[in-house]
């Protein structure tokens, strides 16, 4: 009973956070069922890890139990990279099972260490002793954090509103690499709570971002475009207008599912081609706008070249126009008008060449 009370005392904040997480998942209608189920798995994993961590250090205070503590330590050292890998698997649509390979390799090494002490062991006085691979778990977690930042930013709209939560979450994970050396054993009390807070805060940020996103493509929506233009007009130096070619034909012949696939494929090409301060919006059915901040005309042309290169690798096509800040276009509204004019001219030339006006 005393152990249970101590667990509640140390982990009550964690329990409340996880309960709030569950409630948020229950009332959120934006996420698909598969993502929600994976979120539940993460919640359960963090909760179980908190129990493992508590038991390990509770036994350490009692003295003895070296074998049990070693097993618990192997689980704890393996759990963090597995959780980060599962975060990747949950949050990134294109993530595959192989993101778990480094964490599974570490798990195998930790299991071997139970018998050999190559990563950790418990000495006769009950103290932790690091083997020659003692810092290997920290290296794996660090690499996972770097990879997590890279992948999430790559698949984001490259705006501060999305990048900052990503960095925050990874900062929380990285703190798990540094604080044990600063706080020592005491960090175990807040370890799982730190992970839970990181996941929950990132999730809340994601929910807030969903109100600005187009649900089909994941790009920012028309309302987000208006907000950007209103609040950052002075930074905008170029507008790119993009319209998909032949969407009506695709819908008529293959159905709306085929049209949706075409739009998501093009959206992926645009995202892959864009760089920082080049933000993509879906403002209509097959209409897209890219807002370029503090970009030169050369930057814009290079972006369009990249888009054409990536789109050429698909079976779809699009018409592109652009306008840079100049004496004839001093406002965003005027830049958009001139950009649209160029785009419609390119589209007319495309349809004249293909003989298709839809």
Defining traits:
alpha+beta; Alpha-Beta Plaits; two-stranded antiparallel sheet; 6 strands
Explain what you see.
The structure is a single chain. The protein is an alpha+beta fold. It folds into two domains: 2-210; 222-354, Reverse transcriptase/Diguanylate cyclase domain (Alpha-Beta Plaits, 2-Layer Sandwich), CATH 3.30.70. Helices cover 67% and strands 9% of the residues. It contains twelve helices and six strands. The chain has helices at residues 2-27, 33-62, 66-91, 101-116, 136-154, 160-183, 188-210, 222-232, 247-254, 256-273, 297-312, 332-354, and strands at 120-122, 128-130, 236-244, 278-282, 287-293, 318-324. The strands form two sheets. Strands 4-5-3-6 form a four-stranded antiparallel sheet, with helices on both faces. Strands 1-2 form a two-stranded antiparallel sheet. Strand 4 and strand 5 form a beta hairpin. Helix 5 packs antiparallel against helix 6. The longest helix has 30 residues, at 33-62. The protein is elongated. The model has no long low-confidence stretch (mean pLDDT 85).
User: Which sheet architecture does the biggest sheet show?
Assistant: 4 strands, antiparallel
Number of helices, counting only DSSP H or I runs of 4 residues or more: 12
**Radius of gyration, rounded?**
26 Å
Average pLDDT works out at 85
Sequence-ordered SSE layout with sheet pairings:
Blueprint: H1 2-27, H2 33-62, H3 66-91, H4 101-116, E1 120-122, E2 128-130, H5 136-154, H6 160-183, H7 188-210, H8 222-232, E3 236-244, H9 247-254, H10 256-273, E4 278-282, E5 287-293, H11 297-312, E6 318-324, H12 332-354
Antiparallel strand pairs: 1-2, 3-5, 3-6, 4-5
Helix pairs in contact: 1-2, 1-7, 2-3, 2-7, 3-4, 3-5, 5-6, 6-7, 9-10, 10-11
């Amino acid at each position: 009973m005393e152990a249970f009370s101590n667990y509640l005392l140390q982990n009550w904040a964690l329990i409340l956070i996880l309960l709030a997480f569950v409630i948020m998942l229950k009332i959120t209608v934006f996420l698909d069922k598969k993502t929600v189920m994976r979120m539940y798995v993460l919640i359960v994993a963090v909760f179980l890890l908190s129990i493992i961590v508590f038991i390990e250090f509770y036994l350490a205070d009692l003295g003895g139990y070296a074998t049990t503590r070693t097993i618990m330590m192997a689980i704890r050292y393996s759990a963090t990279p597995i959780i980060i890998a599962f975060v990747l698997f949950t949050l990134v649509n294109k993530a595959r099972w192989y993101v778990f390979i480094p964490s599974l390799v570490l798990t195998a090494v930790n299991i071997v260490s139970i018998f050999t002490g190559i990563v950790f062991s418990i000495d006769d006085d009950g103290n932790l002793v690091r083997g020659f691979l003692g810092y290997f778990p920290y290296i794996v977690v660090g690499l996972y954090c770097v990879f997590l930042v890279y992948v999430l930013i790559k698949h984001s709209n490259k705006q501060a509103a999305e990048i900052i939560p990503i960095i925050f979450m990874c900062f929380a994970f990285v703190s798990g690499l540094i604080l044990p050396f600063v706080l020592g054993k005491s960090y175990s009390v807040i370890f799982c709570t730190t992970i839970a807070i990181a996941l929950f805060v990132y999730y809340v940020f994601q929910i807030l971002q969903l109100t600005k996103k187009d649900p089909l493509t994941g790009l920012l929506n028309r309302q987000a475009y208006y907000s950007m233009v209103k609040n950052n007009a002075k930074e905008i130096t170029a507008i790119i207008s993009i319209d998909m070619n032949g969407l009506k034909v695709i819908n008529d012949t293959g159905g709306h599912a085929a049209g949706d696939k075409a739009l998501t494929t093009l959206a992926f090409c645009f995202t892959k081609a864009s760089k920082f301060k080049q933000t993509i919006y879906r403002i209509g059915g097959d209409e897209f706008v890219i807002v370029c901040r503090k970009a030169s005309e050369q930057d814009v042309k290079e972006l369009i070249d990249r888009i054409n290169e990536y789109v050429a690798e698909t079976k779809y096509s699009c018409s592109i126009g652009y306008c840079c800040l100049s004496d004839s276009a001093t406002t965003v509204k005027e830049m958009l008008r001139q950009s649209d004019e160029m785009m419609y001219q390119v589209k007319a030339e495309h349809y004249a060449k293909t003989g298709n006006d839809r």
